[in-house]
Amino acid sequence: MNPCPGPLPAFGLSRRQLLNRFGLGLGGIALAHLLNPASARAATAGPDLGILGGKLHFTPKAKRVIYLFMSGGPSQLETFDYKPLLNERNGEQLPDSVRRGQRLTGMSGNQASLPMAGSIFKFARHGQAGTWMSELLPHMAKVADHLCVIRSMFTEAINHDPAITFLQTGSQVSGRPSIGAWVHYGLGSNNENLPAFVVLITRGKVDQPLYSRLWGSGFLPAEHQGVQFRAGKEPVLYLNNPDGISTASRRQMLDRLRELHEFGREQSGDSALDARIAQYEMAYRMQSSVPDVTDLSKETEATYELYGPDAKKPGTFAANCLLARRLAERGVKFIQLYHQGWDQHGGLPGGIRQQCKETDQPAAALITDLKQRGLLEDTLVVWGGEFGRTNYSQGKLTATDYGRDHHPRCFSIWMAGAGIKPGTVYGSTDDFGYNVAENGVHVHDLHATMLHQLGVDHERLTYRYQGRDFRLTDIHGKVVKGILS
Asked: In 138-213, where does DSSP find H-type helix?
């Protein structure tokens, strides 16, 4: 037989020529997948260790991240940053010496006055460190000794879309890879049957929009983008076989597609075909793994009680926190939870009371659950929004009602687990809660620290795109060593 040296068009090869051209042949690979899928994948692909190949820059403290993102911007002044001076001077005008000419949004910048608004909620100290927390967070108060509250976060964006994009991708301009995509790109995956990066969004919450680009791969290969799990019978869209298609038929279809894509890659050198093959194969394996991990009925009544009454309602924040723990147990590397509704320009007391009711117990339960299962020591948990809220009232200030505008100058987040110093408070704001007073933490600093705990030097995890080496932290960022144990 003529071995047909040199490239030939895909449709100019017979099946026999195609198999001869590839030595043992892709047909043999396909048969191996049918007879023993696990061993065949191990032989052809090997473990997914990411671009770093398992050679980390530091000894990692974290094996995984659970990021609880409170979309809309929670008010630090009603949660973690106690400011009694605001109560004393409630209704007085914001001093120019405090504002320092800083920009305001168009929503409150044209107000005739900027009356300072003290929180109507009581604060108390909790835990051995005496961390100040609002009465809105009674369950978080019980796990205060596991938390590191950072009161001195600051960001650059003053409006939602660029601010959320900045927290999720390290850039205010859309198109960059999300933090979860960077983690998957660098570190790979610990479970070949589940995505390395999973996204969960609280069901039924309508507020500032969440776009899929927030968990996208940007210019990284497409296989690094997050996979959204939804509540209901079909957690991952289009994962189930169509009516009339059996599992065996789908397997045969995927094997034929693999052959065509492998051949196309040899001809064109297009690495996107590798990503497509990987996604097809992952989808096939997820047909059995996803129903198992999302089946919360296997949890005990004690666990449901821990997470609260909403834990049995699919798509709630409580159910998503419980699912996040199940995903963490199975080696998912980055788990992103979004909870919308924190954008309280008016009616803040009633709005934030409801938001905390939905999230306080589940978030505390997640910390407790991870701790009792031995997972907190290598799971990094992060809670926070895209910015904070102003210390003055947007709109009319009354004794029982007020609103707060966007405020990028200072806000609070908390971190727990995976080498983060527990039971501590880092940084501070001024007595008016308007500016960072000590140990400011920029968004790039937060990202650098998260990567550091995963064993990655943020300056060395890069990707060349359009002639430049890009990284999550752009050209800034430093590890916040003061919060590390």
From this structure: 138-142, 160-169, 179-187
